[in-house]
Amino acid sequence: MPTENELKFVLKLDDQIEQKAKELGTCFKLEQGYLQAKSRLTVRVRRQLESKTGTASHLLQTKYKVKRSVQTGDSRIIEISTEISVRDFEDLWKKSKGKLLKNRYKIKSGVSDLYRQDDGSPWEEVWEIDFFKDQNSANYFIMAEVEIPEGITKPLFDMPEIIRENLLYRVPLGDSRFSNSRLGNQNFTASIYKSLVKKNERVLT
Predict the structure, then answer these.
(1) Among the residues of 7-63, which ranges form H helices?
(2) Mean pLDDT, to the nearest integer, of 147-173?
(3) What are the pLDDT digits (tens) for 118-142?
(4) Is the pLDDT of residue 89 over 50?
(5) pLDDT, position 1
(6) How far apart are alpha carbons 145 and 160 in whole angstroms?
(7) Which one of 13, 71, 139, 184 is at 20 to 30 Å from 20 when CA atoms are compared?
C-alpha cells in the first residue's frame, strides 16, 4: 500500500502568488468533502477539474494512520485513492461535511533514479501549491506541499523559487492543525494564519 510522506509549508497570503503560479504549472480546481475525519482515519470525496483540458475526475480517498511504535510514536500514513462514477460522487457529496474549494498548481522540480514510484518508474518530485477559496473565490489560505520518498526527511531537489520567496512557516510533521479537514473551517484557519504572521513579525524585529 502507498505510504504518504508529505511536507507542508504555509505561504504568505498574497493574490500575486497565484498569478505567478499560473505561469508555472497546470491548475486543478478541487471540491472536497469529508465523510469521516478522525485522528487516525479520514474518508473524503473529491472532484478534480483540470482547467487546461476540462477533464474531470471523481475520487473516493482514504487515509489511515498506522502506529508502528508506541514507545517512539513512530507511524506511517496509508493513502488510497479510488476513482468513482459521477453518480456515486454526487450521492456521497450530499452526505459529506467540511466541504472546501481550492485551486491547486503542480510544479515539477526534478526526477531521481535513486528512488522509485509505486509503478517502478524513477521518482518524480512535484510540488503542489493550494489556494483555499471562500464562497466568493477569494483566497483565504495558501499552502504548499511536496511528497517525498518514504524514509527521508527533506526534498530531493531545491524548493521552487515561488515557494521559497513567499514562505511563512514550515509545518512540523504530524501537526494536525494543517490537515485539510481543519483548514476548511475559515474562522479556524484565519486564527492560525494571524498567529503565524505575529510570530514571524516577532522573529524579524
Answers:
(1) 15-24
(2) 95
(3) 889 999 999 999 999 999 999 999 9
(4) yes
(5) 44
(6) 11
(7) 184
Helix, strand, coil percentages (3-state) for the chain, rounded to 5, are: 25, 45, 30
Residue 65 CA to residue 83 CA, distance in Å, equals: 21
Amino acid found at 151: G
Long-range contacts of 89-97 (CB under 8 A, 24+ apart): 89/45, 89/47, 89/58, 89/59, 89/60, 92/33, 92/35, 92/45, 92/60, 93/31, 93/33, 93/45, 93/47, 95/35, 96/33, 96/34, 96/35, 96/44, 96/45, 97/33, 97/34, 97/35, 97/37
Long-range contacts from 119-126, C-beta under 8 angstroms, 24+ separation: 123/149, 123/156, 125/155, 125/156, 125/157
For residue 200, what pLDDT band results from cuts at 50, 70 and 90?
confident
pLDDT confidence band for 4 (50 / 70 / 90): confident
Question: In this predicted structure, what is the pLDDT of residue 73?
Answer: 55
E-assigned strand segments in 5-94: 6-11, 26-37, 41-50, 56-67, 75-83
Cell 502568488, residue located: 17
